[in-house]
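Repro case for the chain-ordering regression, as requested:
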Amino acid sequence: MINVDIVIIGLGLTAKLTALALAKISCKIVIIGEENESINSNLVTFFSSKSIRFLNDLGLTELSNQSVNISEISCSKLSWYKLKKKFQMNFKKDNNNELGRIIQNKELHQSLNELITKNSDISIINSTNIRSHKYINNINTLTIENNIQIKSKLILIADNKCELINKYFPNNSINNELNQTSIVVNTKVNTKNHAYQFFTEDGALALLPITKDTASIIWSLDNDSEILKLDENQIFENIKNIFNDIFTQIEFLEFQKYRLKFNFAKETISESIVLIGDAAHSLHPIAGQGLNLTIKDIETLIDKISHYMYIGYELGNPFMLNDYQQARQADNTIYTFTTNYLDKILKNNNILVNTISNLGISYVEKSKLIKKLLVRSASG
Amino acid sequence: MTEIKNTINTEEINKFSRIADEWWKADGKFKSLHKFNPIRLKFIIDQTITNFNCDQNNKQPLKGIKILDIGCGGGLLSEPLARLGASVTAIDASENNIKAATVHANKANIKINYINGDIDSLESSEKFDVVLNMEVIEHVDNTEYFMQSCCRRVKNDGLIFIATINRTMFSLVFAKYMAEYVLGFLPKGTHDWSKFLSPEEIYSFLIRNKLTVKETLGVNFNPIQNKWFISRFTPANYMVLGKKIS
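-- result from build under test --
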């Protein structure tokens, strides 16, 4: 029998970040999960300046200092016919405004693992098989393999494949099968820390600098896109053409494909179970806000837990959970839906929609105030 | 219990007994009290920690603090305070309330000295570091005697917290009619407006019983956010902190 304050289900970035943040407010934590292939993925994540502060507070200063500090972000719409792009929107870093940093997921995993191993308040049980769950007298009892029982006051689900989701959150998710696949290409190129986002007719394409001389290209394509039928080299050629007026030299290193899913949970709490991160909302990767949104979830959760602990309430009490859900839901809904619609609008071929979106982008470019707000919200 | 100076109004006791089982339901009849509870608790804990110089880093910062919770109801204040280490004595005139509170505390494995009765049921010499008089005074008949008994129970340098509703036109409309008949925050007939007291009346009770007034805060409701918040605006719900001068 294991007795802890909080159980976290899942062993992804969300689970690890949450565990470390909770340990800071002296909670005892067990993580139940198995490391999957994502730990070796070549994906990168854009962290807003606010998220970077969160990572630094967890003790990841060394990692974030080594990461690329984005100097500029350019967004534009791209048409195949002309293969011409006007940079209609530019965000530049200035003294009071850091745009954000880019960290490789596998490096982040590695640094988080080191911190977790050193932390005596966190233990990991490698298992994905949850046999049963009971909630009696404000205590959760989870039974896993070998009849191991884990008692806790609160369960956080950070794995969208966890069986408990179907049991406690039936018909809860708005699942929009995106019918999209992301191509991720790591390249050798000197970006001067400049990030790009193109809205092509086949889908959004982002180039994010990883180090001084490498960058990751993420291209989200419709499953029926002609591009996906091409072989690696032909895709490289297409990407090369897009960037030929920007970079003189670009070399391709690695190539991976991911299917995209959009998932949004209407309810994120049930008794004393909370859905966090991708289990609550998975975003289209277009705006790079996925993990940033998760970090906001974690920060709110920590804030509510410490507040209710301070006033003497039991961990996992319904008042705290409602308070948490109320605080996060509006933000999550707005982000998740706008990010998905932004993509739909920007690659629409309808002339009217196109005109509006073009106008939208150039209007945003002209309006200093809106741009400032956009930079502020994107950089946290 | 003394028969002569009984401070309990029998009609009031029956009213709350009927709804005693509902105390701990988050979305039950006391849902507005539950919304309000974190705010008053934070005020009590902040001020107690400051006054007694408690160790905030301790998981039980109120260890060693003796608290009397008058009109404890279902134990909404007593339980959290006991969980933070305070030794709590809680009294309520309703037997149902005390029963409900005891059952709940036992389940949560929390030790609280629950007493069914009124303030005179306590050992006559017993005194406390903190006396809580939260949302009680407006349900009491002989306020003069009641306040005198409460203040007598405060140790030197100890604190008394009083929360009640101001007697204004604003409170008649919002705290009485809107809350009970329109918004349904409280069961109908919970309050008798004529028994509400102004902050000045509370100050006068405190001063006459040799206590100083340390703080007065308004507790207000934001209907858009569906949240209670603290301000200096006191035409309806408010809290007063008094301290006994040694």
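Ordering looks correct now. The radius of gyration of chain B is 17 Å.
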